[in-house]
Amino acid sequence: MLVHPQFDPVAIHLGPFGIHWYGLMYLAGFVTFLWLGRKRIATLSHPQLNAKLLDDLLFYGVLGVILGGRLGYVLFYKFSYYAAHPLEVFAVWQGGMSFHGGFLGVLVAMAWFAHKQNLRWLQITDFIAPLVPPGLAFGRLGNFINGELWGRPTDVPWAMVFPQVDDVPRHPSQLYEFALEGVLLFALLWLYARKPRPLGMVSGIFLIGYGSFRFLVEFTREPDNFLGLLSFGMSMGQWLSLPMVIAGIALVRYSKRHAA
């Protein structure tokens, strides 16, 4: 049985201020996005995809992640609470972000950006899809370092005790998500997108891959205590991932039909 190392969530102490590991994980995700994006541009022949566009994409994407992630958490997870305490919607320092909300925020931001640049929306999403999983991987490492979003009780040999929760061995579900949603999904998308693909195909594979991996990992992740399990014994994360898989399948079929 393993025990969570109980990392200090502050990576660097600067007098009364501190730089948190989670903030560093966000920074690492953005830097990796730019680095991989430049590599991806070098393999493509589209004249409008260049380093300047990549920098602008990151700016719009960050806005989408932050605004969508916060609003998604408010709407999907704690709507009744924030309806009663509306000013706390802006208290982002207290935590509370939703991947699925951030994902929707990024989609809206990319649609706006594509319109401004006179590009097709799916051109943009196909381009950025392989660049996203490393950021997800860094985010899950941040969750693990903070000892949050722990897993359900288990007796597997690699079970881990999170002392800040209790003394029960649990799944290290943050590391499962790091491996599946981050490392494996990146490898699949990066290799798949190395060759020209029909418009929308890479985006569809991302939706299917992330939605499927997240759905599976949720079986090992402890549900939010203020929500618990919902209909059919599924978590909120699973209910939000199902539409991603369905939309991904529909997008793949659309892509195949229009490529024929």
Summary keywords:
6% strand; transmembrane; 3-stranded mixed beta sheet; mainly alpha; 9 helices; Lgt; 260 residues; membrane
| Average pLDDT level | 92
Cα(first) to Cα(last) distance is 53 Å
Order of helices and strands: EEEHHHHHHEEHHH
Beta content comes to: 5-15%
Strand order of the largest sheet: 1-4-5
Domain module tally: 1
Going by helix content, strand content and strand pairing, the class is mainly alpha
- Uncertain segments are none
Number of strands: 5
What coarse outline follows from CA principal-axis ratios?
globular
The radius of gyration over CA amounts to 19 Å
Helical amount: 55-70%
Number of helices: 9
What would your notes on this structure say?
The chain has 260 residues and is mostly helical. The protein has one domain. Helix content is 60%, strand content 6%. The chain contains nine helices and five strands. The strands form two sheets. Strands 1-4-5 form a three-stranded mixed beta sheet, with no helix packed on it. Helix 2 packs antiparallel against helix 4 and helix 7 runs antiparallel to helix 8. The longest helix has 26 residues. The chain is globular and about 55 Å long.
